[in-house]
Amino acid sequence: MSRQSLSKAHQKITELSWEPTFATPAKRFGTDYTFDKSPKKDPLKQILRSYFPMEEEKDNRVFGAMDGAIRGNMFRQVQERWMEWQKLFLSIIPFPEISAARAMPMAIDAVPNPQVHNGLAVQMIDEVRHSTIQMNLKRLYMNHYIDPAGFNNTEKAFANSYCGTIGRQFGEGFITGDAITAANVYLTLVAETAFTNTLFVAMPSEAAANGDYLLPTVFHSVQSDESRHISNGYSILLMALADERNRQLLERDLRYAWWNNHCVVDAAIGTFIEYGSKDRRKDRDSYAEMWRRWIYDDYYRSYLIPLEKYGLVIPHDLVEQAWDRIYNKHYVHRVAQFFATGWPVNYWRIDAMTDTDFEWFEHKYPGWYDQFGKWWEEYNRLAYPGRNKPIAFEEVGYEYPHRCWTCMVPALIREDMVVEKVDGQWRTYCSETCHWTDAVAFRPEYEGRETPNMGRFTGKREWETLYHGWDLADVISDLGYVRDDGKTLIPQPHLDLSDPKKLWTLADVRGIEFGSPNVSLNEMTDAERETWAAAYRANPNRSTAEV
What we know:
The chain is mainly α. It has helices at 3-15, 48-71, 80-92, 94-110, 114-144, 154-160, 164-172, 179-209, 214-223, 226-241, 247-275, 287-304, 316-327, 331-341, 355-364, 368-381, 432-441, 472-479, 506-509, 517-523, 526-538, and strands at residues 418-422, 425-429, 445-446, 449-450. It is globular.
């Protein structure tokens, strides 16, 4: 179809839009944004007649690659460490995708622009497709990988686990609260425009380096749709900027969306890339180097900063803070340490870092060994049952962290932790910005302006409170993380399945009490809490034990 005929067809589609005059349409998804003065244009015209053949060809290539992987014995060559971390990754990622699909009706309902509605409808189909092929990839891994346990229960596990619930709240952010905040600023302007670079480009690169060429095929197919989504987000952004009343909300939402995406996406993807890989070539980019190129340069400098010409205040300070946390404050490495600490209540196997890993990390992140090396050596020493408890319950110089109420990633950069009483409850936050998000931004009033459509951070946001006072064996049984024999744990702190004596069972963790830091925090007196907070911030949480 020629460009001219495509434009005519697109124009014809928009003419079919109509507003009923016999009744007032119900507003299903509220927003505090106004679009009375907005332009009604879509810079990227897309119609289904050209869209479906293109997507069909892409699907054929994806499924052809899957068939080729099976015939080519890919699963005999792929790194086991990499595949184990895919149990977490592929349990989480389909949910944000399908949440993004559900977010499109919110945006359509909130934005009075028939041209953009067409683009959003196409994006909704994209997101359903993405979720479907990712689920199919996970099913294929489950059927052909040496250890399917952890793949076979991921739909339940990601929603109830120690780590997966962080990803769940991330995806729920696309579909809750103010329709424009959720479906456009948080999802499209930040998550899709910025962080899909590391998600759908860096992850596939690392997968290929570890012998997995299926994930690159699937995720490059996904990434090729993102330009449409970025265009949709930019169109709505320009519509919002046409009305001065929206500027205050946009600046609020950019701060929230940027910081929450950084806290969650960098935590997850950084860990998968750095700690799920066996590729330790010195010339391979670290996650920090990838982030600097694809997010700092490509997104922040090329996309965000130019928005200043519209008078929008860009969160420069938060971008710089995110970079500082990743490179100087070891954010990703602290997250990986936290994930490994909680291995008994996860649903995949996490092996210890080796001397080769140590050398690579020290090369890419000078000072890494002083902070983390001894702890990983302790993790390796405590990998097998019979002589010790899981590492979280042994004295190795590591204090279990408190969760951030907002992003749900723990307050791992301890000097930045904030403790405040909000809504009658003492809460911990990983940073001042996460505290601001909960206590200031997500409220029915913002800087003197009523914002009734903003969401709230409610519910059991500190996972450990669900099992406070339980026996660890009962926690694992309740989660369903037990293998078919009824006693062996799905999670293990090593990759050795050859000897049953090396595998942890429910009996090995029976009698260990599981506790909630937040419950303990709220039981303290004010003086005790103040003393504890000062000690928490001052503790470097570094193991110095001699192995």
